[in-house]
Amino acid sequence: MLIRQESHRDYKIVFNLIEEAFKTEPFSDHKEQFLVERLRKSDAFIPELSLVAEIDNTIVGHILVTKLKIKSEANTFNSLALAPVSVLPKFQGQGIGAKLILQAHKKAKELGHTSIVLLGHEHYYPRFGYKQAHTFGIILPFEVPKENCLAIELTENGLKGIHGIVEYPKEFNE
User: Fold this and answer.
1) From 3.40.50.300, 3.40.50.720, 3.40.630.30, 3.40.50.1390, which CATH number describes the 2-173 domain?
2) Which pLDDT value is given to residue 27?
């Protein structure tokens, strides 16, 4: 399997892949593919953190990590949002999503980022080091079970002294 940066020629394939990956997901609005399209055109987009997984020259997975802010009354902190991770259904359960997540972590750290926040499955993401975001003093701007609001420090103490409310790029709300 090859993990590489997504290119413009991959966009249509990735759109279809995301649609297929979330088609039967019960906790989805089934519009993640449109979110990715909006985020690619935004200031939050980091091309190096839009990755695809290929097997035999076929794209079977995708991950997108974009910029977000964590705001307190006194400060604004930079962080990242991981959303979404997508794997074609017939390739799920083979560790492709995990490899995409680990590669995105590595690349984000290389680019100087110190943390990632996500809304996701409470039993899946902790295996990568994610903890409930409220334990760092980070909360999401909407009602969601706290066990699904997660964050990770990509560097030691990457979230030390950082607390506040997550401010997603406006593209998340369109």
Assistant:
1) 3.40.630.30
2) 83
